[in-house]
Design brief:
The complex is a heterotrimer. Chain A has two domains: 4-118, Beta Polymerase, domain 2 (2-Layer Sandwich); 123-177, no CATH class. In chain A, α2 links the parallel β5 and β6. By secondary structure, chain A is of the alpha/beta class. Chain A is 40% helix and 23% strand. Chain A is extended and about 70 Å long. Chain A has helices spanning 15-24, 80-89, 121-159, 165-177, and strands at 4-10, 28-36, 42-50, 53-62, 68-70, 93-95. Chain C has a single domain, classed as Orthogonal Bundle (Cytochrome-c3 Hydrogenase, chain B). In chain C, 46% of the residues lie in helices and 13% in strands. The longest helix of chain C is centred in the first third of the chain and has 29 residues, at 90-118. The chains are: A alpha/beta, B alpha+beta, C alpha+beta. Chains A and C meet through β2, β3, α2 and α3 of A and α7, β6, β7, β8 and α10 of C.
């Protein structure tokens, strides 16, 4: 026994249809939350739960304040909290919220807008560090792949099959990278 | 339907000892593992600064140059992270809460100047170490020499 | 019908332990419409993952809510363990569930005391809180803290509970159960309790499903949203687990569900203490979550189901942490339950969902 969780991508156009479909199937909308991606686009996660099944749909590529996201409050009224939250903390443009507070849900101080999208110095440092780690990892993988290639090339020279060698090596490199 | 179902319990508590204690006069029993405050055994401390690095609230400051270990008792959240992570067992969590105050202040412990005995101990240890290193080097040289001789033969 | 008037309720109100503001549209003492507003104690704890690493964030997660402090640290730790594929030792899982159920007892007793206070039964309130103190004493002896325990670590728990201590917990609970049955009798059978709760703020099963409510609030309307049924962690080792349901859906049913859940929690703890296996209590977590990895988890807390999401970026800090607490899910249901009630019943209905606004806003 345990929780079966899964993550799926979802297109913005099919959002409402999917919500309707899952509502009819008897799922409940557990929550909605936005995530600020590294490229400053926003992804919205819609979570449906039924018994021990948890399905997370990721609607990605939402631009702050530009992309119009249809509200699901017509189907799930409890989502009004999350949609107001997404609109105020992340600046997501939610259209058609039944209980729209228009920016007065959390009242922030003067001049503060979408505080969760402000990239703090710590976050920037973490991103740089993450990039560095990823780079080091990639370099290591590439080196390992090169060595494997050299080893393979050496062995393949003996077998005298130079034409198909690069293809095989590419596959090796991806495996090493993983 | 019944009324005043709590009657028996209420009556009973009329004749029981009170649940509360008369605080300043009488103090509650403090169990052994109570998270009250952090105590430091400054003599054992090596000023490595792990506690400062791991502290989630940044309450601890370690100054290696000056040999001081400072804790802001009002920032400390008694999570025991530093006690767990200290490699030299010089931090302990003891019962007894910090007394309230009108402003935050920190407590500083200074590493004492080593006494003559400790200096002598240190010198002895260093001499021992030097002797060990010397012996090891000599043994190594002898081994190499023996190997060379074996090769030569 | 008289003229409609708007009466502000909260954020400061004697019955509310935490700030929520309701605009009540009232017509002749009857509430016709409600507009809830939160946002008075937003602290931005989700943003703090950027300055605290995965181990330090446990102590931030604990401070989301004072009552379910242990639950939040447990749920956060479980999700990060899932993110990093860490196996938790069996004994640690048992200890976590024992502590979690103890905190359920203390949370429900706290709520029952507040409810008794809300309908003006002062002596019941005092007795409930007196009993709650026993659980806090157990916490103090086991973890060293009364409310904020700091007992969870990634990969296990901080310190083991030895046999005499486990036996002591059982003894205390046995003594508590005897007194609690008397209290329960008062809560479920006393006329003055019934007068204030029966038939107040009713939500039918269909409405409960429609509004997506969770926790004891949903179970009082015969909707089984109890996440413990999934059997995560040591819950899967229980010989049987039946969620407590009621069909009435009014305030009385909510009191009843919570009152019976305390007895259920005592049984769960006794069973787990009998079954607890030996072995290590900590499997230390090393390294950092991988870039792009994500995990989610749910946990049944005293107030209902809590959702956690976290994603890693390759450093010691998480990229994003999300916690959805039961009250934010229940606000919609609460506003619906308030429609059509008497003005004098508003405080009882608001309290009956066990609102935890600090949780909601984080």
């Amino acid at each position: 026994m345990g929780l079966n969780q899964s993550f799926h991508p979802l297109e913005l156009d099919t959002l409402l249809d999917t919500c309707r479909e899952y509502k009819e199937k008897g799922y409940r909308l557990a929550q909605i939350h936005p995530v600020l991606k590294q490229d400053n686009s926003i992804s919205l996660f819609y979570t449906f739960v039924k018994d021990d099944e948890m399905i997370n749909f990721e609607v990605s590529g939402i631009e702050k304040g530009v992309t119009e996201v249809p509200s699901v409050t017509e189907l799930f009224i409890a989502a009004f909290v999350f949609e107001n939250e997404a609109a105020e903390l992340f600046g997501v443009n939610v259209v058609g919220n039944v209980l729209d507070f228009q920016g007065a849900f959390y009242s922030f101080g003067e001049g503060v807008e979408a505080p969760m999208t402000i990239i703090s110095p710590e976050q920037l440092a973490a991103r740089e560090k993450a990039a560095k780690i990823a780079k080091a990892k990639a370099a290591k993988a590439a080196k390992a792949a090169k060595e494997a290639q050299a080893a393979k090339a050496g062995s393949e020279k003996a077998e005298s099959e130079p034409s198909s060698a690069p293809q095989i090596n590419d596959q090796d490199a991806t495996q090493e990278g993983e | 339907m019944g009324s005043f179902k709590l009657g028996r319990m209420t009556l009973r508590s009329l004749f029981k000892k009170p649940e509360t204690v008369l605080y300043p006069v009488e103090k509650r029993y403090e169990p052994e593992g109570l998270k009250g405050h952090i105590a430091v055994d400054i003599k054992k401390c090596t000023m490595c600064g792990v506690c400062q690095k791991r502290c989630p609230t940044g309450a601890i400051t370690v100054d290696k140059e000056a040999g001081t270990w400072t804790i802001n008792r009002f920032d400390c959240i008694q999570c025991r992270t530093c006690v767990r992570d200290c490699a030299f067992d010089c931090l302990t969590m003891e019962p007894g809460y910090q007394k309230p105050a009108t402003e935050k202040f920190s407590a500083t412990e200074t590493k004492p100047e080593p006494t003559d005995e400790e200096l002598a101990e240190k010198a002895r240890k260093e001499a021992e170490k030097a002797a060990r290193v010397k012996a090891a080097l000599e043994a190594k040289a002898a081994r190499e020499k023996a190997a060379k001789e074996a090769e030569g033969q | 019908m008289g003229k409609a008037q708007v009466i502000p309720f909260g954020p400061q109100h004697p019955v509310l332990p935490e700030p929520i503001h309701l605009d009540l549209v009232v017509q002749d003492e009857t509430v016709v419409d409600v507009l809830p507003q939160i946002g008075f104690i937003h602290r931005g704890l989700e943003k703090l993952v950027e300055t605290h690493d995965i181990h330090q964030y446990i102590y931030v997660a604990e401070r989301i809510c004072g009552i379910c402090a242990f639950g939040h640290s447990m749920g956060y730790a479980e999700t990060v363990e899932r993110l990093m594929n860490v196996e938790v030792p069996k004994r640690a899982e048992y200890l976590r569930v024992i502590m979690h159920e103890l905190s359920r007892i203390h949370s429900h007793l706290l709520w029952m005391g507040l409810a008794a206070d809300a309908f003006g039964y002062e002596s019941l309130f005092m007795h409930t809180w007196r009993l709650r103190e026993r659980v806090l004493d157990i916490f103090e002896a086991v973890a060293g803290g009364r409310v904020i325990l700091s007992y969870t670590l990634l990969g296990g728990v901080t310190n083991d509970v030895d046999e005499p201590m486990l036996a002591h917990i059982k003894d205390v609970l046995a003594g508590m159960k005897k007194e609690y049955n008397e209290l329960c009798n008062a809560f479920l059978k006393d006329t003055s309790v019934k007068n204030r709760t029966v038939g107040v703020g009713t939500l039918s099963q269909e409405e409960a499903i429609e509004y997506g409510i969770v926790g004891p609030f949903a179970r009082a309307s015969n909707v089984n949203n109890d996440v413990r049924c999934i059997g995560q962690g040591a819950y899967g080792e229980l010989s049987s687990f039946e969620p407590i349901l009621d069909t009435d859906g009014d305030c009385y049913a909510r009191v009843k569900v919570r009152a019976l859940e305390v007895l259920q929690a005592i049984d769960i703890i006794n069973e787990l203490i009998d079954k607890i296996p030996g072995g290590p209590i900590l499997n230390p977590v090393k390294g950092a979550p991988e870039a792009g990895s994500e995990a989610s988890g749910i946990l049944e807390q005293p107030r209902g189901e809590v959702y956690y999401y976290c994603s890693g970026n390759g450093t010691k800090n998480l990229e994003r942490m999300r916690i959805r607490t039961p009250t934010s899910q229940n606000i919609a249901g609460m506003t619906m339950a308030l429609k059509g009630c008497d003005l004098a019943d508003v405080n009882m209905i608001v309290l009956s969902i066990d609102p935890c606004i600090s949780c909601t806003e984080r």
